[in-house]
Amino acid sequence: MIIFTLFMVVILTMQKQNPTLLSVVSLATGALFLFSLLVRQNINFKPFFTSKFNFLTSKIRHQKEFDLPKDILFDKMMEVLTEARFKVRYADKGAGVLFATSNISIFSWGENIYVDMAEADGMTKVDFCSACFFGIVSWGKNEQNYERLMETFESSLII
Amino acid sequence: MAIIVNLDVMMARRKMSLNELSERVGVSIVNLSILKQSKGKAIRFSTLESICSALNCQPGDLLEYRDDGAGGE
């Protein structure tokens, strides 16, 4: 959020020197920001946010295997996401797809968390992706999200 | 896993479903399923006490040690 504000200040300052070019750049950036803000909670735009070609969204991916059946792990992950203060926006148990968002704070507009599960050889493979909805740098927020989720998961296994 | 949780055996003996046990104990069905499959990392004494109370059994009826030949691992 701070970066975005600074960016806007720089754009407005530089606009005096080359008004046309900077107007186009700032308009395009603003439009992209608004578009991302509007569609960020829509699961259909998952490829847009997770694509490696979308350099405007900083993202991290992690893969982990769990010794639990997919059905149980899915319910557990739902529980863990809520416990870890993420907001679950979409859940499809059959497909093993979960989508959650983190809260907006003074340092971040919030990140999109995508969890995909697939069963293989009695294990469940989990693909985790945390993506900033708009921002080239996440300032460690994506890593923090993954660590928070895993810590909550580990501690939730103490029943 | 050397420690086996015989929750399913005790539930069958008491003819109690997972839903019923979950309501009585106050532990979610997911957590009980994980416990039943011996996939949990640890069990709290309070949870053990609640389960024993609900199933009218002893901790020894629920937990069993089996030597899996892995040198105590």
Summarize this structure as a short list of keywords or feature phrases.
heterodimer; A: about 160 residues; alpha+beta; Alpha-D-Glucose-1,6-Bisphosphate, Chain A, domain 4; five-stranded antiparallel beta sheet; 5 helices; 5 strands; B: about 70 residues; mainly alpha; 434 Repressor (Amino-terminal Domain); two-stranded antiparallel sheet; about 50% helix; globular
Furnish the topology, listing elements before pairings:
The complex is a heterodimer of chains A (159) and B (73).
Chain A: H1 2-14, H2 19-39, H3 46-50, E1 59-66, H4 70-83, E2 87-92, E3 97-101, E4 111-120, E5 123-132, H5 141-156
Antiparallel strand pairs in A: 1-5, 2-3, 3-4, 4-5
Helix pairs in contact in A: 1-2, 4-5
Chain B: E1 3-5, H1 7-13, H2 18-25, H3 29-36, H4 45-55, H5 59-62, E2 63-65
Antiparallel strand pairs in B: 1-2
Question: How does this model look, in words?
Answer:
- The complex is a heterodimer of chains A (159) and B (73).
- Chain A folds into two domains: 1-39; 46-156, 2-Layer Sandwich (Alpha-D-Glucose-1,6-Bisphosphate, Chain A, domain 4), CATH 3.30.530.20.
- Chain A is 43% helix and 25% strand.
- Chain A contains five helices and five strands.
- Chain A has a five-stranded antiparallel β-sheet.
- In chain A, helix 1 (2-14) packs antiparallel against helix 2 (19-39) and helix 4 packs across helix 5.
- Chain A is elongated, with a radius of gyration of 18 Å.
- Chain A starts with a helix and ends with a helix.
- Chain B has 73 residues and is mostly helical.
- Chain B has one domain (3-65): lambda repressor-like DNA-binding domains (434 Repressor (Amino-terminal Domain), Orthogonal Bundle).
- A two-stranded antiparallel sheet of chain B has the order 1-2.
- Chain B starts with a strand and ends in an 8-residue tail after the last strand.
- The model of chain B has no long low-confidence stretch (mean pLDDT 88).
- Chain A binds chain B through residues 67-69, 72, 75-76, 79, 154, 156-159, and chain B through 27-35, 37, 39-44, 47.
